[in-house]
C-alpha cells in the first residue's frame, strides 16, 4: 500500500528561520512554498530524493493561527515531528481499505495537499500515536 515516505511534517514557530537552518545545516533546497488556508498552515517542502510514484521531502509547517491543528500541537508539545506522510497510488482507495480495517479517518474524502497532491489524514490514536497522512502525487 505504501510506496515511499512522501514527507515528514515538522511543526515550527518561524518558517523562515527553520528553512534557513535546514538549508544551511543539511544542504537541502526548498522546491515549493504554499499557504493552505483549509489546513491552517504556511509551509515549505525541502527535497530529499525521488522515489516510487513521487519524491520525498521534509515539510516545514508554521500555523496561520493558534486555533489550527499545527497551532494547537505547538502550544501543547512545542516544535517537533507533527506527522509522517506515506505515498500511495490512490488515496480514495487507500482510505476505503484502511477505514474498513477499523482505523478512524480524519478525512472521508481526499483534500488538497502540497504541490498539487491529494491527501487524507488518519487518527493518531489509531496508528500508534503517529498522525499519519496518505499522499497521492499529481499525474505528471
Ligand atoms: C494531536 N494529537 C497528536 C497530534 N495532534 N498525536 C500525534 N501527533 C499529532 N500531530 C493527540 C493529542 O495529543 C491528543 O491526545 C489527541 O490527539 C487529540 O488532540 P487535541 O489536541 O485534542 O486536538 P484535536 O482533537 O482538536 O485534533 C487532533 C487531530 C487534528 C489529529 C484530530 O489535529 C487533525 O485533524 N489533524 C489533521 C489535519 C492536520 O494536522 N493538518 C495540518 C497539516 P491526548 O492523549 O492528549 O488526548 S496540513 C499538511 O500537512 C498539508 C498541507 C500537506 O501535507 O500537504
UniProtKB/TrEMBL annotation:
Gene3D superfamilies in the cross-refs: 2,3-Dihydroxybiphenyl 1,2-Dioxygenase, domain 1
GO BP term, example: L-methylmalonyl-CoA metabolic process
A molecular function (GO) term: metal ion binding
Matching InterPro entries: Glyas_Bleomycin-R_OHBP_Dase, MeMalonyl-CoA_epimerase, MMCE/EMCE_epimerase, VOC_core
Entry's EC annotation: 5.1.99.1
PANTHER family in alphabetical order: METHYLMALONYL-COA EPIMERASE (PTHR43048), METHYLMALONYL-COA EPIMERASE, MITOCHONDRIAL (PTHR43048:SF3)
UniProt protein name: Methylmalonyl-CoA/ethylmalonyl-CoA epimerase
Organism of provenance: Streptosporangium becharense
